[in-house]
Automatic annotation (TrEMBL):
Protein name (record): Uncharacterized protein
Family: Belongs to the peptidase S8 family.
InterPro entries noted in UniProt: PA_domain, Peptidase_S8/S53_dom, Peptidase_S8/S53_dom_sf, Peptidase_S8_Ser-AS, Peptidase_S8_subtilisin-rel, Peptidases_S8_3, S8pro/Inhibitor_I9, S8pro/Inhibitor_I9_sf
Biological process per Gene Ontology, one example term: proteolysis
């Protein structure tokens, strides 16, 4: 157990470890040759530290992690001066200052519960039956590493019933700790570890009533993502409130799981406020996961803002994983709807946006004038059958709350008056505070019910919640209707109907308002996100160590829960990557990503183009990348855009960054960054004409003739040459150029992107790539 080593060091030198002027740094040397034994690498790390610290003891005590399995580096407590000295050494590739709140899990700040879906979450995306599942043997023996908040091993989603022996390639361990023994690993959860040093460095010793000091999941998020990627098929699950009854299943139900717990509660914040994951802990987990032999890594973790690669330890870890042909699936982030908010922008990962499912939980509001407004919730509580007085939150404020405050409608804690609100239905707006927390405030003042209205930014996206009193949530448009009604009459009244589950709701999918968006400000030549997958109101396994809302006062315990976020869409793609890895063991990680991207769909279940959360405005590739994933079609993509680790190194050379391998010499003229063989294309600030090169590899039938079709972005002309590609065997590669020219007259105003497509098709396969172009 790693912590046993660490804790005594802290105890020996507490003053040093927490001294005010030291910070946490990652000192990174890049690849290692593998010639040195692990303990020799660690000794090297000590000598580097000794070269800047006064004493040997100080040097030893300052070391937090030695990274030595796959790459060479360490994390240590250093003063800025010591860090600067180390960064001057020739062998040091990078020094990154680690910050406590840089990375977090990518759920929206709301934690919900519901019954189990009646149809698989995947139903409407599996457009051609279960061929991929069969062909991949349900992801049999592919190992998915999950970096998250741990796992609840007792969940039926993690049963190993009838699973074969653990793959021989597996080199990981089952680390024990609080309420977690080796018997909690099985043939499903084949490995589990936890990483605390970075967390404890910033937040002090873990409070073991807030979380388990072990791979066990107190939060719930880690169990949710792990079961989404690779949970077993669990039939006949019913749940609190009885909303639904049916089957839950992960994407690759027979894949194996390796759990790396890297996210921990922030002390003194409510549990519903979420977790923190430090980069030094995550880097240690990545180093282990790659060495342990995972095939896919699911990372529902990101930064709030875009971060450059040489400051993004997660990107560096992912590049080492990519070298070992591991597919790394990452969430795009929940900082939408603002543009340029995307996290995890690197071209060696799959960046996943979030969209809705075709399932809703209808709970309408009946207004006193007879009007019925549609709402959604998974709240199990019911009002008495009568009309209730309806008020704006701003009409029932506590006398201490300034009615002019812009948050007067937001039902923030302590803002409402029990005298004024008792027995009424209170209408609140989204904005600051959690959706669940607003409900708690409405309940605190003795109100009968709660209606949560979207602000315009949330549009028609309804993330459902398991509120603590009768409640429902309404779209921005409906919020205005309700507000108008309240203003129109002296004694407004309302009734909230209890929710029922509705399947095949339309339109679906639409993009979630919260999903982070392009353009990619770190690598403007790489279009991101890559893909969208379900991330709104996703049902999956939950912890029994926490309530479904995570509110302190909530004592309910559930086995399954509904969450929203790009955290939920990322493991969907990790699950599909595992199926593809099993079905096509010879494919590279870039080929797997290409297959998922070029086969994606653009239409919703009404046969129209996918919209944003307004359900009116069309969404674009800065929200969904190549479109909505279609796992069945990804199994047979026809052509793939392949890329190797060396291509990524050349990409970094051309970006002016040399962040990985000190031995690798950048060529004088590396290929331009836009010529990285990526399945999509972004051209920022086009001035005149640009010619981009791509190469496709035939993975369809042995013979194939592909024709190109182009939908140029408005304001540009696009020519692809040659327009026909003839393949005579599997694995054959053909290159082509894409010439993009700004039209003199019609070019968009500078900086505005317009979007288009180019598509190769042999009449059966459709290999589509989005393009985003802006003019100088
Ligand atoms: C964890 O273990 C302790 C001690 O064995 C026990 O009291 C507690 O109930 C366990 N908690 C859970 C959630 O299993
Ligand atoms: C640990 O957390 C619990 C629950 O929030 C709290 O009551 C307790 O005071 C905390 N302990 C320490 C040492 O902070
Ligand atoms: C508005 O209310 C919030 C919540 O009580 C408070 O944090 C904020 O400071 C207030 N703003 C102003 C301008 O008074
Ligand atoms: C949230 O609160 C801050 C500070 O009170 C305020 O500036 C901001 O406008 C609020 N956001 C929303 C969406 O109401
Ligand atoms: C209703 O009245 C309130 C308070 O006067 C105001 O803030 C709100 O904008 C009104 N609603 C509509 C839809 O006009």
């Amino acid at each position: 157990m790693k912590q046993v080593l660490f804790v005594p060091l802290l105890l020996l030198l507490p003053l040093l470890a927490f001294s005010a002027d030291t910070k946490v740094y990652i000192v990174y040397f890049g690849e290692h040759s593998g010639e040195k034994a692990l303990h020799e690498i660690e000794e090297d790390h000590h000598s580097y530290l000794f070269s800047v610290k006064k004493t040997e003891e100080e040097a030893r005590a300052s070391l937090l992690y030695s990274y030595k399995n796959i790459f060479n580096g360490f994390a240590a407590s250093l003063t800025p001066e010591e860090a600067a000295k180390l960064s001057e050494k020739e062998e040091v590739v990078l020094v990154i200052e680690s910050q406590p709140d840089k990375y977090s899990l990518q759920t929206t700040r709301s934690w919900e519960f519901s019954g189990v879906e009646e149809t698989k979450a995947w139903s409407f995306v599996k457009n051609k039956g279960d061929n991929l599942l069969l062909k991949s043997k349900y992801g049999k023996d592919v190992i998915i590493g999950i970096l998250d908040s741990g796992v609840w091993p007792e969940s039926k989603s993690f049963s190993d019933e009838a699973m074969g022996p653990i793959p021989e390639s597996w080199k990981g361990i089952c680390q024990t700790g609080d309420n977690f023994t080796t018997k909690h690993c099985n043939r499903k959860i084949i490995g589990a570890r936890y990483y605390l040093k970075g967390y404890q460095k910033f937040y002090g010793t873990l409070n073991r009533t807030l979380d388990y000091q072990s791979p066990r999941d107190k939060d719930g998020h880690g169990s949710h993502t792990a079961s989404t990627a690779a949970g077993r098929v669990v039939p006949k699950v019913s749940a609190l409130g009885g909303f639904a009854y049916g089957t839950a299943s992960g994407g690759a139900p027979l894949a194996r799981l390796a759990i790396y717990k890297v996210c921990w509660p922030i002390p003194k914040k409510g549990k519903e406020e979420g977790n923190t994951c430090t980069e030094i802990d995550m880097l240690a987990a990545m180093d282990d996961a790659v060495a342990d032999g995972v095939h896919v890594i699911s990372l529902s973790i990101g930064t709030q803002k875009p971060v450059a690669y040489d400051q993004d330890a997660l990107a560096i870890g992912a590049l080492h994983a990519a070298k070992k042909n591991i597919v790394v699936s990452c969430s795009a982030g929940n900082s939408g709807p603002s543009p340029a908010t995307l996290s995890n922008p690197a071209p060696w990962v799959i960046t996943v946006g979030a969209s809705s499912l075709d399932r809703s939980f209808i709970a309408p509001v009946i207004l006193g004038n007879g009007m019925k407004v549609e709402g959604q919730t998974v709240t199990p509580y019911k009002l008495k059958r009568k009309m209730y007085p309806l008020v704006h939150a701003a009409q029932v404020l506590d006398h201490s709350f300034d009615p002019k405050n812009s948050t007067a409608m937001q039902c923030l804690p302590g803002s409402l008056s029990p005298q004024k609100a008792r027995g009424k239905i209170v209408f609140c707006l989204r904005g600051n505070g959690t959706r669940i927390g607003k409900g708690l405030e409405v309940k605190r003042v003795g109100a009968a019910g709660y209606i949560l209205g979207n602000s315009p930014a949330n549009g028609a996206e309804l993330a459902v919640d398991c509120h603590v009193l009768p409640a429902t949530a309404v779209t921005s448009e409906d919020a205005i209707k309700i507000s108008k009604y309240i203003n129109s009459t002296k004694n407004p009244t309302a009734y909230i109907v209890r929710a029922v589950t509705k399947l095949y709701s339309k339109p679906a999918p639409y993009m979630a308002a919260f999903t982070s968006r392009g353009p990619n400000v770190i690598s403007p030549d790489i279009l991101k996100p890559d893909i969208t997958a379900p991330g709104l109101n996703i049902l999956a396994a939950w912890t029994e160590g926490n309530s479904p809302t995570k509110l302190e006062s909530d004592t309910r315990v559930v086995k399954y829960n509904i969450l929203s976020g790009t955290s939920m869409s990322c493991p969907h793609v990790a699950g599909v990557a595992a199926l593809l890895r099993a079905a096509h063991p010879s494919w590279s990680n870039a080929a797997i990503r290409s297959a998922i991207m070029t086969s994606a769909g653009l239409l919703n279940n009404e046969g129209r183009l996918i919209t944003d959360a307004s359900q009116i405005t069309l969404a674009d590739p800065f929200q969904y990348g190549s479109g909505h994933f279609r796992p069945e079609l990804a199994a047979d993509p026809g052509l793939v855009y392949d890329a190797t680790h060396k291509d990524y190194l050349l990409f970094l050379c051309a970006s002016g960054l040399k962040v990985v391998d000190p031995v690798y010499k950048c060529p004088k003229n590396p290929p331009a960054t836009y010529n990285l063989n990526y399945p999509s294309l972004a051209i920022p600030n086009l001035n005149g004409t640009k010619i981009v090169k791509r190469t496709v590899t035939n993975v369809g039938g042995s013979k194939g003739v592909y024709f190109v079709r182009v939908n140029p972005p408005i304001g540009y002309s696009v020519k692809v040459f040659p327009p026909v590609l003839v393949f005579s065997h599997v694995g054959q590669q053909k290159s082509f150029t894409i010439t993009v020219k700004a039209n003199k007259k019609k070019a968009e105003k500078s900086g505005d992107y317009s979007f288009g497509w180019y598509t190769w098709t042999d009449g059966f396969h459709i290999v589509r790539s989005p393009m985003a172009v802006s003019s100088a």
